[in-house]
């Protein structure tokens, strides 16, 4: 079980790092927010699932209840993070922020 926990944590950290690279490398607000939103959601769920699984190493009914609560937090993050990302991009579109296009690229 510790191997699975370690894999989930490492995979989560990897996707956080990929999201950071996307935020630093992409050209405009929309693509940066897309990278952050997708990678952040997946990474957070992986890390939280790893923590929930690690909590079950010493199995007891109390630890099972705590792990279920942690998984409920993961479900909330899985729903709330993309929703918040969508709301922020919609607000940016409403206020008139233009997306990057190929013609904006310097020669």
TrEMBL record:
The keyword Ion transport does not apply. It comes from the Bacteria. Signal peptide: none annotated. The chain crosses the membrane at residues 6-27, 39-57, 69-95. One of its GO terms (molecular function) is sodium:proton antiporter activity. Keywords: Membrane, Transmembrane, Transmembrane helix. The keyword Nucleus does not apply. This is Sodium:proton antiporter. It comes from Syntrophotalea acetylenica (Pelobacter acetylenicus).
């Amino acid at each position: 079980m510790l191997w699975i926990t370690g894999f989930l944590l490492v995979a989560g950290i990897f996707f956080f790092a990929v999201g950071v690279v996307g935020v630093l490398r992409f050209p405009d607000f929309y693509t940066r927010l897309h990278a952050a939103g997708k990678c952040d959601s997946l990474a957070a769920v992986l890390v939280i699932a790893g923590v929930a699984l690690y909590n079950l190493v010493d199995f007891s009914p109390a630890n099972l209840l705590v792990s279920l609560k942690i998984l409920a937090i993961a479900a909330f993050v899985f729903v709330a993070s993309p929703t918040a990302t969508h709301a922020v991009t919609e607000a940016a579109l409403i206020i008139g922020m233009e997306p990057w296009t190929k013609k904006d690229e310097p020669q």
